[in-house]
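User: Reviewer 2 asked us to show a designed sequence for the structure in our supplementary figure. I'm pasting the structure tokens here. Could you produce the per-position amino acids so we can include them in the response letter?
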């Protein structure tokens, strides 16, 4: 019988006793009736309590009696900002999670005084076995991997608890994340540079070992590049021969030198051409060519017409911004004399009359 039932029984017994007493007084019951009434009022509650005690197994248990078990302990703990190693030295993950556990039957008489410590240790060990094999560049991916691996209840090493973790976060410290981003940029730039360098090496190798190996290979390559335009390829033979020789650091073959647009000695320079090979002669200057012209016309040394013609040509080319060539002509063919004229007037042979050109000889026919 519960406490409430007992209280109700006693209250009803007292109430019935009062009612019967009032009834006996008003009805003038005999004196022997009062002891019987007292026995009845005491016996009825006692009988009720005994009957209730005999049937206690089928009645609800009192709430107070349910509190004989020890209070339920808390079986979760929050873990915050724990460093876990990664595959790279000095780049640690930062781990946070809610650790949960439930007790197992201990294998012996070895009580667990701090189950939270055992649970946290077990979770961190399981997480460490995963993070130490992962690179720190993708912490969010490793976080999801840990969420799956730690979501199952597993017994810890002492077999006292089953442990799991949830609400897991895994990040890198901000300075480490910035360093990794900088390293990623450097690696990308290096990869691009390596590809460019290999491309240039491959191109140089192709040109030196295939295209420019000899003049024949160069001509075939040039013919293919110009869509079988044979005339253009033939016109560029001299240029191709020079290009092949320069690429192989050799001289142009003698059989191809006539195809070069300009004399081969001019390509090297006058001084270098004379020093490098006796066959290469300096190209004749304008004065040399004019001297050859005078000789071919029969104006030999000592001929008056020779100097006259030279002075006229020199005066004419001065107006064409050829001052240097004009001075070379006069220096070679009409050098100044050492004699000084006695009068202030210039000799007629040097300047001529007003009607005659400078340097003309009196009476000499004009040159047309």
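Assistant: Here is a per-position design you can include in the supplement:
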């Amino acid at each position: 019988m519960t406490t409430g039932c007992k209280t109700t029984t006693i209250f009803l017994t007292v109430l019935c006793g009062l009612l019967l007493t009032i009834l006996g007084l008003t009805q003038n019951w005999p004196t022997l009736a009062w002891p019987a009434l007292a026995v009845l009022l005491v016996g009825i509650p006692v009988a009720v309590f005994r009957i209730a005690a005999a049937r206690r197994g089928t009645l609800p248990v009192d709430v107070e009696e349910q509190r004989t078990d020890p209070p339920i302990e808390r079986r979760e703990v929050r873990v915050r900002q724990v460093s876990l190693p990664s595959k790279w030295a000095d780049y640690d993950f930062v781990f946070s999670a809610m650790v949960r556990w439930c007790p197992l039957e201990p294998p012996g008489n070895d009580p667990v005084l701090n189950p939270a410590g055992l649970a946290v240790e077990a979770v961190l060990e399981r997480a460490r076995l995963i993070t130490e094999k992962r690179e720190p560049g993708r912490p969010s991916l490793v976080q999801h991997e840990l969420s799956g691996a730690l979501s199952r209840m597993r017994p810890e090493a002492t077999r006292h608890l089953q442990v799991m973790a949830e609400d897991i976060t895994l990040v890198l410290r901000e300075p480490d994340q910035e360093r990794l981003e900088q390293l990623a940029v450097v690696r990308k730039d290096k990869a691009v540079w390596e590809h460019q360098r290999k491309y240039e090496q491959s191109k140089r190798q192709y040109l030196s070992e295939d295209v420019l190996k000899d003049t024949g290979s160069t001509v075939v390559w040039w013919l293919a590049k110009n869509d079988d335009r044979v005339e253009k390829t033939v016109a560029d033979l001299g240029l191709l021969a020079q290009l092949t020789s320069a690429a192989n650091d050799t001289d142009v073959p003698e059989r191809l030198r006539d195809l070069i647009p300009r004399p081969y000695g001019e390509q090297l320079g006058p001084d270098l051409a004379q020093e490098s090979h006796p066959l290469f002669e300096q190209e004749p200057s304008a004065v040399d060519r004019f001297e050859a012209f005078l000789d071919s016309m029969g104006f030999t040394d000592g001929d008056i017409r020779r100097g006259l013609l030279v002075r006229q040509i020199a005066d004419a080319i001065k107006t064409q911004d050829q001052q240097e060539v004009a001075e070379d002509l006069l220096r070679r063919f009409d050098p100044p004399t050492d004699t000084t004229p006695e009068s202030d007037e210039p000799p007629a042979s040097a300047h001529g009359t007003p009607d005659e050109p400078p340097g003309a000889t009196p009476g000499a026919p004009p040159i047309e």
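For the response letter, you might also mention the following. The beta strands are 76-84, 93-103, 154-155, 161-172. The radius of gyration is 63 Å.
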